Amino acid sequence: MKNTLLGSLYLILASSIWGGMFVVVKVVVSVIPPLELVWLRYLVAIFALLIIGLITRQKWRIEKRYFLLIIAIGIIGNAISIVAQETGTMLSTAQTGAIITSSTPAFMVIFARLILKERLTLKKGISVCLATIGVFLIVGIGKMSMSSTLGGVSLVIAALSWALMSVLVKRLPSAYSQIVVTTYSILVALIVLTPFVLPSLHEINLSQLTHPTIWGGLLYLGVVSTAGGFLLWNRGLQMLNASSGGVFFFFQPVFGTLLGWLILGETITKTFWIGSVLILLGVLIIVKDRQEEHNHSLSRKQTNFRRHNNGNFR
């Protein structure tokens, strides 16, 4: 039960951080193009993660059999997904971005079934449906615009690739530190993106980078959103199963809307609060379902233990 609550808290914090990311990206991407922005935020994140790793004295050794998995996580989740997300955010409306990326948990349930063979339950289905309805109410179905086809396609790719990455993380042993895993996967993405970014870096107006809003946004994206958010998300997924953990992704548009209201002066309607309640219900169902699974597993182990001991006394 402790792991369930702690894992839930990690995932809620990660989603909240990423909710603020949309507001920051909208501002920073006006100066730095999406591909270059992802590369710069990873450059900042690598330094932050290395400092954290050195302070906490992490063990950086990874078994060779997990190399390909780390590379896949880096390319799929840290390179393809984030570049697609920031490109889609730039090309489409915030409402469109929130709607499409909120499909990630549904994709996670599917990938968890295909890759991890996780059991699909009625409660998981209900929780995803409630959270999905909540997101649609928050962002407003009537306001959804798909005028930019490229932006919409880019966001779908972001949702699919992030869902796949989140499931692949579960294939790594829980003994590996999330600091180490996150650092290596981001390093992979940085290496992959470098050949595409270097030729165009000179086109960025360096004088604009000195503006507090821009460098502050880069620090948020690199340290808080990338280093902090990825660490919290990956750690939370290790404590919950992948299909259950995905539901917490729905907190992202909730906090994105709140920050949009606080920072950009956007209006919050009654449907926002109704949608938030539905999302919360969906998350509570998942937590309760996870607790029941844990209790059932514990009860089964105790029964087997008693049977084993009774057999020894005969």
Automatic annotation (TrEMBL):
Belongs to the EamA transporter family. Keywords: Membrane, Transmembrane, Transmembrane helix. This is EamA family transporter. It is found in: Endomembrane system. It is a multi-pass membrane protein. InterPro entries: AA-Vitamin_Transporters, EamA_dom, EmrE-like. Pfam families: EamA (PF00892). Its main location: membrane. The chain crosses the membrane at residues 9-32, 38-55, 67-84, 96-116, 128-146, 152-169, 181-201, 213-233, 245-264, 270-287. It comes from Bacillus xiapuensis. Residues 6-139, 151-287 form the EamA domain.
